[in-house]
What we know:
Helix content is about 70%, strand content about 0%. It has helices at about 20-60, 65-75. Helix 1 runs antiparallel to helix 2 (about 65-75). The chain is mainly alpha-helical.
Amino acid sequence: MINFAGCRGLWNMGFMGGGMFFYGIIILLIILVAVYFMSNGHTNAKNNAQDILDQEYAKGNISDADYLKRKNNLR
């Protein structure tokens, strides 16, 4: 598959023959997928905390002032 001595990559493309471009696209896609999943996880955690806060307020377990303070802290 890869011959490092001749700088040949996939489908016999060297780095100057388009192989570098091909590998660059693959690396870029991997980075974009990683960033997407990492940013998605933080958003879900924040929404989850907001949902829990709303539920506790609806049950009457926390006061109005405490609810507003905690809501502002989540932002």
